[in-house]
Design a protein that fits this description.
about 325 residues, alpha+beta, wza like fold, Outer membrane lipoprotein wza fold like, 5-stranded mixed sheet
Length: about 325
């Protein structure tokens, strides 16, 4: 019986010894693991050299002058920075050099360590490379990795106004944006829009103005008028000229004048005469160059001019 108790006691002693060893082993293991992780985190805390000498590569970092512009999805890679654009400049492993700035009217921003930097007219990649070179050449960082994010587009915009579906300001996403591209971006011309477009701006420091025939742009008759637009240009589509018809017409009111429209076509656009009206008794009121109104009997073949007023009279019989 004594041997049985001795055996049970030995087993209990072994269990207690194993439990005590497990309790003391936990903290020791944690104490040895934590120091091993610290050296790997230390370089990231602050590296005045921009990236480690010898440069190991971090696949997620954008190299100086690289086009790692994940936040610039709203514009194309060829977009050039202009006055009013808001950007964020970041340097890998140097959070103290992160700056949000607005490009001035002179095309510059103020950046730590290097002062004023002219970025106007440069693409995102070119601006990244310029800041990286300034940091490197000034011996501030050995291998700076610069990333620029375009936060808000204000520069290099073109205004499209007047009789278009979506008037507003549009950024020039590429260097080869043409008049037809801006018209498409604005949704095209409204039904009451004119057939001509006026573009104004500056070219070579001089005021610039050009009248463009819109249908000719797309019918390949005047492809040379589909010119390149520049930042600051304004495209304006005026309201189309109208004429007025009243009297014994099916649908009296104002109507858009089509190219080469005659009096007969104008009456037809108004639904034609009523059963009481007569095509042989039309009166045309037209405003002359001197501002005076002249009333004449209209022929069906007469051309219709802006602001003409056509009166459909009653038939005599």
């Amino acid at each position: 019986m004594r041997s049985v108790f001795r055996t049970i006691g030995a087993l209990l002693l072994v269990c207690l010894t194993a439990w005590a060893a497990a309790q003391t082993a936990g903290p020791a293991t944690r104490a040895t693991v934590a120091p091993s992780a610290a050296p790997s985190a230390a370089p990231a805390a602050g590296n005045p050299a921009g990236s480690p000498a010898g440069g190991g590569g971090n696949g997620a970092a954008a190299t100086g002058g690289g086009a790692a512009t994940g936040g610039n999805a709203a514009v194309g890679a060829d977009y050039r920075l202009g006055a009013g654009d808001s950007i964020r400049v970041q340097v890998f492993q140097n959070p103290e050099l992160t700056v949000e700035a607005r490009v001035s009217e002179q095309g510059t921003i103020s950046y730590p360590l290097i002062g004023s930097v002219n970025l106007g007219g440069q693409t995102i990649s070119q601006a990244e490379a310029k800041i990286a070179a300034a940091l490197r050449d000034g011996n501030f960082l050995r291998r700076p990795q610069v990333n620029i994010v375009l936060l808000q587009v204000r520069g290099n915009q073109v205004a499209v106004l007047g009789q278009v579906q979506r008037p507003g300001r549009f950024p020039l996403e590429t260097n080869n944006t043409r008049v037809s591209d801006l018209l498409a971006a604005a949704g095209g011309v409204t039904p009451m829009g004119d057939d001509t477009l006026i573009i104004t701006g500056t070219r070579g420091g001089q005021p610039f103005r050009k009248v463009i025939d819109i249908p000719g742009l797309f019918l390949n008759q005047k492809g040379q008028d589909d010119i390149l637009v520049q930042g600051g240009d304004t495209l304006f589509v005026n309201r189309a000229p109208v004429y007025y018809i009243y009297g014994e017409a099916q649908r009296p009111g104002p109507y858009r004048i089509e190219r080469g429209m005659t009096v007969q076509q104008a009456v037809a656009q108004g639904g034609g005469p009523t059963p009481r009206g007569s095509l042989n008794r039309l009166k045309l009121t037209r405003t002359g160059p001197d501002g005076k109104q002249v009333e004449t009997d209209a022929k069906l073949s007469d051309p219709v001019l802006p602001n003409d007023v056509i009166f459909v009279r009653e038939s005599l019989f």
